[in-house]
Amino acid sequence: MAHADTLAPAPGPARTFGRPTTATIMSLVLLALMTALVIAPLILLFRTSLTPAGELPFSTDVYTLDNYREALGNPRLPILIGNTLTYAFGSVTIGVTLAFAIAWLVERTDIGFKRSIRTMMFSWMAVPPIVMAFGWILLGNPGNGIINVILRSLFGMKGAPVSIYSMWAMVLITGFAIVPTAFTMIAGLLRNMDPQLESAGSVHGARPFSVFRRVTLPLLVPGLLSVGILLFMAMVQAFDLPLVIGLTARVPVLSTQIYLLAHSDVSRPDYSLTATFGTFFLVLALILILVYFRAVRLGERFRVVTGKAFRPNLKPLGTWRRLATAGVGFYFLVMMLPFLVLLWTSFLPFYSVPSMEALTRLTLENYEAVFSETRIVRALVNTILLVLASSTIVMVLSVMIAWISVRSKTRLGRLLEVISFAPMAIPPVVLAIAILLIYLRTPLYGTIGLIILAHVTAYIAFGTRTMNAALLQIHRELENAAFVCGAGWFTMLRRVIFPLLLPHILNGWLWVAGHSARDITFPLFLITTTNVVAASELYILWNTPEIPTAAALAVVLVSGLLCLVVPVQIFAARLGTERRKP
């Protein structure tokens, strides 16, 4: 009965935290931990931006604005901002347009293979962007890219009919790559829209296109706007494709500029100027997130989901059904091409275009190298440690933070919620350079533990938002019953909250694990000889260049992620379905 008074039916802050309970102590511990993880690196980043060039913040007491003057006076700054915005706007426009078309076909028409399309969309999110970039380079390289070789042989063209190294190629590839993410968000909007509004338009004599233009589209605009802004923020912060393709194409963006300043091959890294560009980048991200929240609030006026049960009407496509199915199939074929060319290259001693002669050279030597070379094996082991540790720590912390934020209603809980959400507004490259600066002279630097810590910091925002939403669906009387029966706070979490949230925890764990394995930003910024992971080793092999071995490692990485994502996703979906049964 020790906690019976802490969980009365309508507890206020005083009842919940009236005495130093375990929950109160854990709130303070978590607040201190999140402050150390999120706030401290940003403070040091800003301090470094005020440090004289060539100095570290620990070694000087001098403050100067010279770095800001140099950055603002740099003629490359407008070019960097222009390239960043062009890249983000172009890729989001293509990605959202394609995703909306496919989501509308799947959710509102009788197109075939719906389950397969949804499964392909979710599974494709397991493919790291850097793997796609390498595949597209092999396809569109001006010299020996497969597409150029085929076009030259078929039409007698000279030079390079197609070049992967341009802004617009980068935009097109990224646009295709973000379609699965946009699809999952837009499909939910279409699925939850009440069809009675469209039916009313049809009853009054409006044609299908007029109903779509004057009813469906206006209702979806706020949701599409919030999806577009969220993806725009992600693309402004993107690092993988601009690094692999943009640098060769001489199309620098802000994220790659920060990386080059921190990892100069010809001079000592300029951390002061790097921190200054990082501060600019952070301000740009904060402006975008304010715009995003504004768009979300605007969307509240357009709520069309009520408590009434409804099922969206499926429009018959008639003779267009096969053409629509073929169009969606063509999209998946285009998306499969980069992975197929990497799969082909992984069985060759050196890269060459597909031919009968090349078939005679197929070998497994590249896979033998992946599983026998010490540095690659160490990278794979580090990746397994990184994925398991970061995803597990994130979800454990997220459940505790979410419980305190949702249940306590105190200033302490709200402050904890705000700090844990803050990484959502911090570009990964900025967070990476901030973490590099704060741990540069500590024993943690150079270990896989530092990358785990970085991923926990970066992904805690997603974990807490996911758990917050899930906890709001659970009535607190279940927790009260546990306390009344004498359970402590940790026992209540372990015996009540964790089992009830298990499907959501598994989905969140899967998301963090997938993003942790495919991320290259933190592994490259924090890289040393001992903490290399699969993604950073892949980048090193590609630039060595050991392209066939890199292709084999890419295939192993993607296969491993699919083996992790698909079974856990199926298990979580079945678990959720069983929980909803009466």
From TrEMBL:
Record flagged with keyword Nucleotidyltransferase: no
The UniProt record lists the keyword Hydrolase: no
Cellular localization per UniProt: Cell inner membrane; Cell membrane
Any one Gene Ontology cellular component term annotated for this protein: plasma membrane
Residues in ABC transmembrane type-1 domain copies: 81-292, 380-566
Transmembrane region(s): 25-46, 85-106, 118-139, 165-190, 217-239, 271-293, 323-347, 384-406, 418-438, 444-462, 482-502, 522-542, 549-572
Record's bilayer topology term: Multi-pass membrane protein
Pfam families: BPD_transp_1
Keywords of this entry: Cell inner membrane, Cell membrane, Membrane, Transmembrane, Transmembrane helix, Transport
One Gene Ontology term from the biological process aspect of the record: transmembrane transport
PROSITE patterns associated with the record: ABC_TM1
Family membership noted in the UniProt record: Belongs to the binding-protein-dependent transport system permease family.
PANTHER family per the UniProt record, alphabetical: INNER MEMBRANE ABC TRANSPORTER PERMEASE PROTEIN YDCV
Name of the protein described by the UniProt record: ABC transporter permease subunit
Organism the protein comes from: Stappia indica
